[in-house]
Amino acid sequence: MFKNESGTSATKSLDDVGIPLANKEEADINPDLIRREGFANEAEYRAYLATLGGEIPFDAYVAETVTSEGHALEGRLRELREEFENLQARLQVIRRQAATVLTENARWADASAHAQLGDRPWLKLAGAIAAAFVVTRGLRRLPLGTVATAALPLAAAAINRKLARD
Asked: What is the pTM of this model?
């Protein structure tokens, strides 16, 4: 029951789930013909159509659904291809930027070497490396074991004298 605009009570029709019906035509609908859920299989669909009194071909419905899904898949495939091409273009830009960075770093290293070592920095570096190699070879040939054995007691005596003074 509800009150209408004039203030009098009126009865309003409700459907099978308790929702008010808008007009008299909806109140006259057979509740068995109202279906709010999907069908489990084709036989259930055909049985429902028979209760409605009409015949809608199931195959046409399925074909229409498959066709619309096919168009959706083609559209999605087209979108993915466009996105792939976009990513390839971005990767190309990143590759070019990486090459530029490497080139600029090499130029900076060369300019830095020239600033620190003069006109022929690589020749001077090669000379320093060769000198280090020769000195290392010379030190390996020295009998440092014998020298260390002779110097160790002298160093220990010097340390003891220093500690004795303090």
From this structure: 0.34
